[in-house]
Amino acid sequence: MSAAGGVPRYDCIVIGAGHNGLACAALLARAGRGVLVLEAAERIGGAAATREFFPGYRVSAGAHLLHSLSADLRRDLRLDSHGLAAAATHMPTTSLLQGLAPLRIDAQGAGAEAGAYADYEARMRRFAGALAPALERTPPRLGAGRLSDRIELLRLGLRLRRLGRRDLRELLRIGGMNAFDWLNENFGSEPLKGALAFDAVLGTNFGPRSPGTVLTLLYRLAGQRIAGDAGLWQPVGGMGAVCAALAGAASAAGAVVRTATPVERVWIEGDRAVGVVLADGARIGAGTVISSADPKTTLLRLVGARHLDTDFVRRTTHFRARGLAAKLHLALDGVPRFAGLDADGLGGRLLIAPSMRYIEHAYDHAKYGEFSREPVLEITVPSVNDGTLAPPGKHVLSAILQYAPYAAGGGWDLQRPRLLKSAIDSMARFAPGLESQIVAAELLTPPDLERELRITGGHWHHGDLAFDQFFFVRPVPGATQYRSPVAGLFLCGAGSHPGGGVMGIAGRNAAREVLQGRG
Amino acid sequence: MDDSVSAPHFLKPLLRTPFHRRARPLCQVEEFIAWAGYSTVDVFTTMEQEYFAIRNAATLYDLTPMVKYRIAGPDALDYLNRLITRDVTKLKVGRVAYCIWCDDAGLLIDDGTLFRLSEREFRLCTAMRQIDWLAAAAIGFDVVVEEVTEQVAALALQGPTSASVLRAAGLDAAMRLKPFEIGHFEAGAAPVMISRTGYTGDLGYELWMNPADAEAVWDLLMTAGRTWGLRPIGSRALNVARLEAGFLSPNVDFLSALHTIRVGTGRNPFELGLDWLLDFGKGHFNGRRALEQVRRAGPSVRLVGLDIDGNKPAHDALIYAGASARRRLGAVTSAVWSPTCKRNIALAIVDASHAALGSTVWVEIYLNRELVWERRMARARVVDRVFFAPERRRATPPADF
Question: The complex's ipTM?
Fold first, then answer.
């Protein structure tokens, strides 16, 4: 840091101390840049944080499982030496079924259709393997005429070509399909299809029948590839441990992290970002500003329309970023008794997604601002694997409730208790006596997540993953390749390629672009 | 007015202006055209008679179909400064500015006149409707943008005796108006806003009024103008005058970037010779980043004035480097025989290599002589596109005629 004319100055200011912001900051600091990270909240972490929601009970407040945290990033920043450790890896997925034994899906197979599942798995792994490297790289920009972009495009083409004629033809055929049709081609078992379709729609604004849900499924599988195929895993201390380790790496490299310091706007002079203005009016100068906030927050609020062009603002305004998932936290005074589950299963991921029809039905409600009495749920009981999260003998339950509309009819104050009851009733059907075990409950709707995480729309991917908001064009044309129209201002959040999920890749790619210096 | 709203709209797709009942009986040759959704007169008597009135007497032209937007609110100035390429902070209350605006790629959307009515209220007059663009540009600004075309009737009073007509109509106070200045007056009992603006390149005014007062103001001016040679004119005569003045006509000399489909048919201000309207020092404006690049690279084509040999107007002519017509340089966008300049003039888009003043190019003119087509190659010189600019257009107070 230096100070000229009373204004402190850093080489780089990173806005937001979520995992992408911290990953970006750590890499910039390690490259010798003077880095300041500014976080609006009292604590770091963003959507990857651990929070005490009831005295003695802690839970991953946003994302609650890891499946695509970049293995390279983890090794590169030596996150394990900064305290990142696994409480459980290769966690199994179990689909809870009314009147039937639960269906367990893991590396060993998936119930009755073991043969078909093995074929499906192998093919999807090949597709995901071909696409995965593209997640870790800056997407090429079309039409800009730069050699590096052409080489990048060629690289992607060659990788796909290497799939061979049959696989490539199949990938092109299914790439734009919906998960419903694709899974029906592969399987007969409704419970299996329901469980697999769940991963295609988790965190999206889609139902299994929506076009583009094979893409979201492949995206998730490709993410697992870059995570080194550790499967689903849970860090000791909850998701906050990821950001704590990233912050540790950043601090060790010399970066300064300040919390409770909201940025009011990006300081722009002569069409260049030259720092930030804080909420209290103080200014901090910087050669480069990198924002991990969502694109609408960064571009429309921190930069502002008057520094941007009209069509670009219109595109940014139309960036689809309304969350459709709620988060449920329960403090329990004992271990929940899910019928038919062994200890290993309870320590894994539980789904209430018994069929694709069930999921689509729940989605239909959400389209019209309602929610289904039979919600789709992804349930974890993280305290089974990690005793640090709850008092001895007590437990916490963390669930993602898919299809909670951003704008609920009648307002969320009216609807929140109803949705909570539906969720608890649904779970209690499989875990008798669950209601009586509840010490405290918290339900965070998309507007709650928007407020708490400061993400416009409360979308945990910062914006839908769909063909028109993906890869080359994410978040919107004019703000791709981690750049913004304002020189010196970069984007490094989940709104940029490759998108959401706790990967850390957007942060890492943005750091690389900053260091390459084409501003 | 009444019959314009009585029928179902699809039976009468064109609106009538508040002056229609006055203009209709004076139109002797039944030459009407559709203009921005209104039916207006193209020719009242003959084009030549009307043209010479513009240059030698005074003319009245129904300007109502000109699209008008009211832009008001706390952020109106900031909004316009981002929309428009000029520095709007320099536009004082009571003044008018000619201005242009561009899309994100720096291609021209439209040109128009911006009236600053008060600190926070402006009127933007444009050739075409574009509320979608103006509304999109309003995202992030505390501003109201609304079309007021139907709420404001407008007349252009143009020609060397136009000031005398105003005085004869009891509007002598308007004589003090400098070019691009606005004043508020009483025409008889009707309040009118008068701006010293126009599309003829001559001395002239534009009068803005409540549609209910339209006929009274028309009558007042026509009566007062009787001894000053005042006559109503249509669009055809005006087009000759605007071309002599070197003014661009949208959809003729350039196509709005909102309407082009093919790549390369949009035009940036450097190509159209409108770069004097760009203010790179004022802060961000729409298209600025793209235009910075054009500024560095330079335009590849330019809009120029042409002085063409002979007296045959070079309508739609292709332009070549030599009489052999081998290397194409561009095409004529507007052409006319200028009766006042006694020159065969045109506006044209040509390759930048031949855009310097004094360059020689060749124009391919097709002539229809009693249904027999002939092709004629005519030599042309690149000249300043303002072909006619009499001193009287600027003199304040205007000279007596």
Answer: 0.92
